[in-house]
Amino acid sequence: MKREPDCMLCSIVSGETSASLVFEDTAVIAFMDINPVTEGHVLAVPRNHYPYLANLPEEVASRMFLAARRIAAAIRGSELKSEGINLSYADGEAAFQAVFHSHLHVFPRYEGDGFKIAADWGNPPT
Predict the structure, then answer these.
(1) CATH code of residue 15
(2) Closest residue by Cα to residue 47 from 116, 1, 114
(3) Of 46, 47, 58, 124, which alpha carbon lies 20 to 30 A from 11's?
(4) Is 49 designated active site?
(5) What's the predicted TM-score (pTM) here?
(6) How many domains does the chain have?
């Protein structure tokens, strides 16, 4: 397993730090986020350390998305009764990436949950 010693997500993948696992296969694990945006927020993470999207092998990226798809379906079928699902992947500091181990957020959405995605769609700054 490719690992970085000071990476919080590598520590979870290795079992050094505990997490509430919801999915795992040979390439990806998924667990409950400790700072959830909404109830049921999950992170899908490659087992190996890849800091950016460009470093992520296609097979692993595919497996992360497949895991997210399965998790989203499980959330929709659960007692959480979410009304939607957001997927979020931040790649680089300018995109608000704070943990430099690739990870895909899967979070349920509920009417009035307070989460907002703010952008001036169609009017990029010049």
Answers:
(1) 3.30.428.10
(2) 1
(3) 58
(4) no
(5) 0.91
(6) 1
